[in-house]
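Our platform keeps sequence and structure together, in a single record for each protein. Such a record has a labelled line for the sequence and another for the backbone structure tokens. This encoding replaces a full spatial description with a residue-level series of whole-number codes. Below, we set out a record of this kind in full and without editing:
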Amino acid sequence: MILQNNTELAAEEFDGETVLIDIHRGVYFNLRGAATLLWQAFALPRTEDAVLDTLLAQLHEAKRDELTDALARMREEKLLLPVTSVAQASAPFTFAPTAYVPPMVDAFSDLADLIAIDPVHEVDAGAGWPVRPESFPAVD
């Protein structure tokens, strides 16, 4: 399967971790360990197998099942989306040598209400701001 990062997510890297925010669902994600490398790898469209093979070849002690599980979670959470074309063959995925740290993908919805009323969202001229969008999922 060919995948690429979901470009509708806001993403920022901090000290080897990647934080992603899905403003449409009000969920933010923390990627740690090899999950950050997976996110970096799919900045361009690439096949899952090509990325997995690269990581397994270059990361000592990397475990395919852990990487595969992280990829599945990232697809499930719509962090990675299927696409129809791959990056140019001349653009292989490379990364700085690092020790293998198992991939961790954590999702949080505790700030969903704040994300929903954030001023980056469209403001209803009649209702003003802040207004929770009707399409926004309920948070328990």
Observations:
- The helical segments are 34-41, 48-58, 64-76, 112-116.
- The first strand starts at residue 2 and ends at 5.
